[in-house]
């Protein structure tokens, strides 16, 4: 029984990791290519979730909702890139932080304006309802497995996109040498808009997928955003591979910490006390891991060559 | 010959496949100006960075005043008396020339962890700094911010900061870079007088200056020293002529 | 007199005069609003030391603000319940004692956070300070002993010898005096040897190291001093609201403190004061007009970052003169 529970928790950790990867990949891509730190990335996650919930409610189809989430996040992403973000590429990080902080205020309050303060709910699509048996007894939600599969597909897709396609070549050129892509005759501002929209679409996808597991509400993107920051700091800012590894580390460590710490502490203290102390410590665990990794590798595990 | 002030043995540094420093050994003796020449990309600046502590060597030893300084950071090496100038001027841009030099005086003179006494009224910082600025001929520009100084003046300010540290050795990385012939000549004369204060390791492309100043010259090509000797020996060395001077001439 | 000095004195005078007038007219609400300005300004003065003078973009100063607040809340709660804190040490309701504890706690926590974060630069530093603040935030939420998510109420505002702090105006004056003292300290540090080294570390850390001053140590001490001032502000803020909760630790708070500095003018002595006056006024005025005030606050903020660089003091007193 414990084995089954352990496997379940590991899968939960993987699912959280995959979801964080969708967020972190966009963040790290945008930072790598444009040198921009984007706090509003969590808002794009929220937009994806709202778009999916709204369209799914109107049409009855989760899949249409999923397409809507990609379209809405990419569309809003492209819009704010053109209107605001592109003015920030030459600015220092402080200006970027403040401007994107302002965007959060605008987008969060805007979403509240449009959708109200009550959370929306999104059902898991019929196709993916139900559970699969786990070795050692117990069952696991099919939908969560599907999220893990989507994450792996996106990781493979991003790898192919960046290593095999013309767009990927331009992105890599943009990461190593900005003047070169100009020399290659690439329209830089279009490239930047496309990269930003791509990152936004991934965030929107993550929001939509998670929307069916929890409620869709304003502010849902912020905790995820901060975890995604931890991910890219651990993985090395600018590195997609680092984002993947960091996301899995953070997802698994966080989930397993919450699962195991209270039980471990219960060996040495009363159960009730172990639960509270364990929960409190578990909530700090990934930050401790981050601090440890940074103590040895100040620019993360897979720091991009600068 | 007297004990060397700075002693470098078998220093190595690679960047991936590129051996930027490939087994360099070198001595800097009191009273001498030791010039380091070589074609672009030979690894001269990389060597200066390793001696000053802004880059860590892969292997080899650097002894300064008899002490192994390989494990010390840049600030600790500077406190021991190793004063450097940068190939590209590196100054506190918003500070005036005077404040830039005062920072060096403050560093030499004692703790920077003093929180109350105001530096703008601190004669023990201002006076020595002004003296140094007068020596390099920059006193009339003391109140101008580093960002507003001309290129040549910034080069002078770099020298002034190094002087203000009253160091045991100078590391100058292309102090004449980008200077006109007239200023180069003046600076050459000025550096000539410095060798009595402290020996100098001088990286320089201006061959007139090198031949006028150097007591010894080392020639660095592809990270290796291919020859070390007096000006005349280097001028005559066939390998040097082939590898370097031949190209330049 | 320099133009900026004149404007600074004017700002201080207005900030002092408004609550006096409001109290005279029997409008305690505005006194409390002014106290909020003063305390937020104090927190931002702390951040300004790291961010303005040292160029350290800490996105985690809410941690120190909140810790100061919790120091006040926890000490007061223990004193109120007459329970010893630990090892027989009692709580206290004495503000000077609470301030001392708040400052020490903030400084002590800033030491390891700074020591790890300052090994990195740029975006890493921003994100790591943010992450550490979040760590403390989540800890506060999941630790039930002091209210967890609900926070902690301070039933009676803590006491300052000889002053009736329960009244809005005397408490305002206490806070105002602390702010003025912090500004004086900031000015002294700015002009000191340490301040020179700190500003040089911002402009060119390599240059600082090249003359023999280790930038890391300078930055770490600045980070701690900065945290201590912000922690003190947190203690005052908890007493102002007679409440401390996780929201004081949240990353919105860190963002707000940064916003205050940018609104007023980064690195300028009175930047945080001007910023807090503008921010609280905007909040109050917009909040009176529309429920959606955050939306418009965001728009205004965006406009300021994009188009009005240098903040309020940059607009009214021109480029700072560097000496």
Mean pLDDT of chain C: 91
Strand content of chain C: under 5%
Helix content of chain B: 25-40%
Q: What is the CATH class of chain C? A: Mainly Alpha
By oligomeric state, this entry counts as: heterotrimer
Shape, per Cα inertia axes of chain C: globular
**CATH architecture grouping of the largest domain in chain B:** 3-Layer(aba) Sandwich
Radius of gyration of chain B, in Å, reads 18 Å
Approximately how much helix is present in the residues of chain C?
over 70%
What structural class is derived from the secondary structure elements of chain B? alpha/beta
The mean pLDDT of chain B is: 90
User: How large is the radius of gyration of chain C?
Assistant: 19 Å
Fill in the CATH topology of chain C. ABC transporter involved in vitamin B12 uptake, BtuC
User: What is the H/E string of chain B?
Assistant: EEEHEEHEHHHEHEHEEHH
What class do helices, strands and sheet pairing of chain C give? mainly alpha
Describe this structure in words.
The complex is a heterotrimer of chains A (about 300), B (about 250) and C (about 325). By secondary structure, chain A is an all-alpha fold. Chain A has a domain at about 10-220. Chain A has 11 helices and 2 strands. In chain A, strands 1-2 form a two-stranded antiparallel sheet. In chain A, a hairpin with a 5-residue loop joins strand 1 (about 130-135) and strand 2. Chain B is α/β, with parallel strands linked by helices and about 250 residues long. Chain B has 2 domains: about 1-80 and about 165-250, P-loop containing nucleotide triphosphate hydrolases (Rossmann fold, 3-Layer(aba) Sandwich); about 90-165, no CATH class. Helices cover about 40% and strands about 25% of the residues of chain B. In chain B, strand 7 (about 170-175), helix 6 and strand 8 (about 200-205) form a beta-alpha-beta unit. With about 325 residues, chain C is mostly helical. Chain C has a single domain (about 5-315), classed as ABC transporter involved in vitamin B12 uptake, BtuC. Chain C contains 13 helices and 4 strands. Chain C has a two-stranded antiparallel ribbon with strand order 1-2. The radius of gyration of chain C is 19 Å and the shape is globular. Chains in contact: A-C, B-C.
């Amino acid at each position: 029984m414990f084995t089954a529970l352990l496997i379940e928790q590991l899968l939960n950790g993987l699912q959280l990791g995959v979801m964080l990867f969708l967020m972190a990949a966009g963040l790290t891509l945008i930072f790598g290519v444009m040198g921009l730190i984007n706090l509003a990335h969590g808002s794009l996650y929220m937009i994806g979730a709202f778009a999916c919930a709204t369209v799914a409610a109107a049409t009855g189809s989760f899949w249409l909702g999923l397409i809507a989430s990609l379209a809405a996040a990419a569309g809003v992403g492209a819009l704010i890139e053109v209107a605001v973000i592109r003015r920030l590429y030459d600015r220092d990080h402080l200006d970027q932080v403040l401007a994107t902080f302002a965007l959060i205020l605008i987008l969060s309050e805007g979403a509240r304006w449009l959708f109200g303060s009550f959370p929306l709910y999104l059902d898991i699509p019929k196709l993916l309802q139900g559970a699969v048996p786990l070795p050692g007894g117990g069952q696991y939600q099919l939908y969560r497995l599907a999220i893990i599969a989507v994450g792996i597909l996106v990781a493979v897709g991003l790898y192919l996109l960046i290593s095999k396609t013309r767009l990927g070549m331009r992105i890599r050129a943009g990461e190593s040498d900005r003047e070169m892509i100009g020399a290659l005759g690439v329209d830089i501002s279009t490239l930047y808009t496309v990269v930003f929209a791509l990152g936004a679409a991934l965030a929107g996808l993550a929001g939509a997928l998670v929307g069916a597991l929890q409620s869709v509400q304003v502010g849902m993107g912020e905790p995820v955003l901060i975890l995604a920051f931890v991910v890219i700091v651990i993985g090395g800012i600018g590195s997609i591979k680092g984002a993947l590894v960091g996301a899995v580390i953070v997802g698994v460590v966080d989930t397993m910490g919450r699962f195991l710490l209270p039980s471990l502490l219960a060996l040495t203290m009363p159960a009730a006390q172990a639960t509270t102390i364990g929960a409190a410590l578990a909530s700090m665990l990934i930050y401790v891991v981050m601090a440890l990794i940074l103590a040895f590798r100040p620019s993360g595990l897979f720091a991009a060559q600068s | 010959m007297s004990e060397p002030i700075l002693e470098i043995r078998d220093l190595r540094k690679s960047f991936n496949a590129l051996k930027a420093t490939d087994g360099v050994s070198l001595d800097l003796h009191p009273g001498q100006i030791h010039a380091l020449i070589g074609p672009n990309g030979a690894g001269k600046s990389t060597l200066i960075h390793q001696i000053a502590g802004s880059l860590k060597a892969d292997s080899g030893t650097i002894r300064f005043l008899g002490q192994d300084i390989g494990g010390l950071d840049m600030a600790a090496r500077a406190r021991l008396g190793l004063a450097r100038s940068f190939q590209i001027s590196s100054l506190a841009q918003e500070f005036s020339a005077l404040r830039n030099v005062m920072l060096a005086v403050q560093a030499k003179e004692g703790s920077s962890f003093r929180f109350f006494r105001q530096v703008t009224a601190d004669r023990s910082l201002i006076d020595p700094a002004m003296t140094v600025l007068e020596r390099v001929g920059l006193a009339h520009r003391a109140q101008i911010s580093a960002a507003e100084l001309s290129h040549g003046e910034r080069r002078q300010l770099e020298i002034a900061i190094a002087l203000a540290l009253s160091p045991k050795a100078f590391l100058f990385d292309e102090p004449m870079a980008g200077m006109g012939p007239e200023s180069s000549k003046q600076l050459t004369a000025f550096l000539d007088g410095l060798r009595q204060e402290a020996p100098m390791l001088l990286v320089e492309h201006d061959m007139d200056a090198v031949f006028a100043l150097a007591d010894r010259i080392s020639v660095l090509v592809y990270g290796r020293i291919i020859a070390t000797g007096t000006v005349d020996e280097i001028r005559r060395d066939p390998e040097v002529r082939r590898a370097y001077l031949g190209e330049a001439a | 007199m320099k133009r900026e000095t004149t404007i600074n004195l004017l700002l201080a005078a207005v900030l002092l005069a408004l609550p006096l007038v409001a109290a005279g007219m029997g409008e305690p609400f505005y006194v409390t609003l002014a106290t909020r300005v003063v305390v937020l300004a104090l927190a931002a003065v702390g951040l300004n030391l790291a961010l303005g003078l040292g160029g350290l973009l800490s996105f985690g100063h809410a941690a120190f603000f909140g810790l100061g607040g919790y120091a006040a809340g926890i000490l007061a709660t223990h004193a109120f319940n007459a329970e010893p804190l630990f090892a027989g040490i009692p709580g206290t309701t004495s503000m000077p004692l609470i301030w001392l504890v708040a400052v020490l706690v903030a400084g002590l926590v800033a030491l390891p956070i700074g020591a790890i974060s300052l090994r990195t630069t740029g975006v890493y530093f921003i994100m790591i300070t943010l992450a550490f603040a979040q760590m403390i935030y989540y800890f506060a939420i999941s630790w039930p002993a002091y209210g967890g998510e609900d926070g902690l109420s301070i039933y009676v505002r803590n006491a300052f010898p000889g002053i009736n702090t329960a009244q809005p105006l005397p408490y305002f004056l206490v806070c105002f005096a602390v702010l003025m003292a912090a500004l004086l300290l900031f000015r002294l540090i700015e002009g000191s040897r340490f301040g020179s080294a700190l500003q040089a570390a911002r402009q060119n850390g390599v240059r600082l190291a090249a003359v023999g001053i280790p930038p890391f140590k300078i930055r770490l001490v600045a980070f701690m001093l900065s945290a201590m001032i912000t922690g003190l502000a947190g203690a005052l803020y908890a007493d102002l609201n007679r409440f401390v909760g996780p929201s004081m630790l949240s990353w919105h708070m860190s963002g707000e403190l940064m916003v205050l500095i940018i609104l007023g003018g980064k690195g300028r002595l009175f930047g945080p004061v001007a910023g807090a006056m503008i921010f609280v006024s905007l909040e109050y005025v917009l909040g009176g007009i529309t429920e959606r005030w955050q939306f418009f606050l965001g728009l205004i903020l965006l406009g300021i970052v994009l188009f009005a660089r240098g903040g309020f003091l940059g607009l009214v007193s021109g480029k700072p003169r560097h000496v």
